[in-house]
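Field: sequence (string)
Field: structure_tokens (string)

Example rows 1 and 2, in order.
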Amino acid sequence: MQNFYRLAYSALMDKSADNKAACIGQMQTVLAGMAESAGVAADGTDLLADQPLTIDQPGQPEALSMVDPRALERRKLSTPAGRACFIHAIAHIEFNAINLALDAVYRFRGLPILFYRDWLQVAAEEAQHHQLLVARLKALGYGYGDFTVHNGLWDITRRTDHDLMSRMAIVPCVFEARGLDVTPPMIEKLKSIGDDESAAALQQILDEEVHHVAIGLRWYRYACKQRGLDVVDQFVTLVQMYLPGRRQGPFNVEKRKLAGFTDEWIARLQQLDQGRTRL
């Protein structure tokens, strides 16, 4: 069992996306082997180990230059450099998403075995998304690390590392769900300027992100049920706690419903959004 968590920590701290992907594959194999034997109980109680370490910053390529979000480079999507800058930003989101999924596996202990399978699957697919976008960057004449990035996603991950319910609500159900809203118009914009290759890459990512958000919703609901809390009311409370004043919409209702958001939930999100400003 310690080997499983050593692999998770190694994957988190490794600076290479390829090495992270290799570790994820090893972890999936280890977990499958334990589940088939008597080594892991169906409820995940045998996945308990020593307390996870606080991780202020997971591994990432040394070439990345971190800046305040307000200092990010802004370029027109209509130019090759502008498209590369845009693709680079998405590639960085996907790289962060690998670490987000790995941290969920590493940090939250004693959960049903399905939890670890789910988040290792997410981690593996996020690694594929990152590789897909890096390949697209290379085709445009650039590499990962050629543009500035920010660390906002890991900052919120660090703030929620004490509580499964908060993590599931804020990271997959807010930040990753936001991708369901904003990616379709990005795809149409890329198509309108003739970049069908980048549009196809984003379409593949969008299709799989619906399932990733659904996994986040599943485990957020699980945490609420364990504590006897109303799913929607508690979600609103957590958003107000962690993201006060931050607008969430406009929403892609169709994609959010596919991921498992209910009509009531979406209506509450829209109500919460009224009068707020975009951060």
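Row 2 begins here:
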Amino acid sequence: MIRIDEIYDQIFWPYINKNIPNTRLFYCYPFGHTAPENLNNIGSDETQSSFIYCHDQEPVYPDTHRPLFDSLHLRNRDLNNGYGPDHAVVITSEKHSDSLTQVCSKYNWQPYYYFFHGWAALDWYRGYDRNYAIVPAVERRPQKIYFAPNRIISGHRSHRLLLMYHLLRKGCDRGYYSLPIVCPDSGDRLENLVAPFANQYPDMQSTFDGIKLPANLPGEIDHPMHSCWLSQFDACADSLVYVVTETVAHGQRLHLTEKIFRPICMQMPFIIASTRGSLAYLRSYGFQTFSDFWSEDYDNEPDDCIRIQKVADVVANLHALSDRSRQDLWHAMQPVIEHNHLHFYRGGFENILWGELSHMLTTLKSDLAN
């Protein structure tokens, strides 16, 4: 297993330094920060013929990240006496991305891919398969329908507001969910974040006015960040399904994060609010999804807003189940839950990731040699 905090120093750089000479490696530190001053680099002070930039921690946003990309571009021109290097590479954790295509066209970068967040999840969630705080799935009798944490709700993550609006409007109140009244990332208040939805969803604000806000998960206040560990064991054990509100749910791209692996590690089925094709993307890594138990047609929906509504429709259908039907469904899903848990913790997923990463580095070596 790769230690994700050492991936650049201990994985990428030793390989690049040995196999791709005259190359400088760039990445952002601390993780999750993307300002120009967060750029770090490894490499000699001599002029390099290639540079490799790892933009693998975050999605690619051409406008939001423009200062970072411009800074990287200018720094490499300065290091090469006003000329760009012969080869400029960006490594991301997203596929089929219109945003990435736009950025690569602008800066003349060549894109490469590996699943950074898969490695992050393996590192961060290691050992939870040996944890007595997690009730084994076969022993549970969930009374709530869903578990849906929502921390950051502004900017590119406003789809979380839309999902909660649809759930609450449909009367789906038998769940554990969080919803801040002030976004902990941007500081924007909920009423200001709802305003852009007013024309299409005029009752959104009144729907949120009908619940007590901020809504917190059991035992929590102020919506703490939980990316690097698992938590809420009792609430998850009492929930039929985990509703994953991914980082990205708009536009053409495939970009999953550690969030999708939280229900897998917690031995739970999941529904995902993300970009089109995300379930198929997850299945390509050997995991199973739940089309035998409810419709996963939402994964093929091209309209982002309609897709979020269809996710809420699935939850609403589960909400209508009788207690007996809910328990029968839970037992029927056990083989899929067990497969995903074992695939994550018994090496299957890691072997796929290592093959992917090794192939990417070998391809990169070959391409930059030409």
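free_text_note (row 2): The two ends are 32 Å apart (CA to CA).
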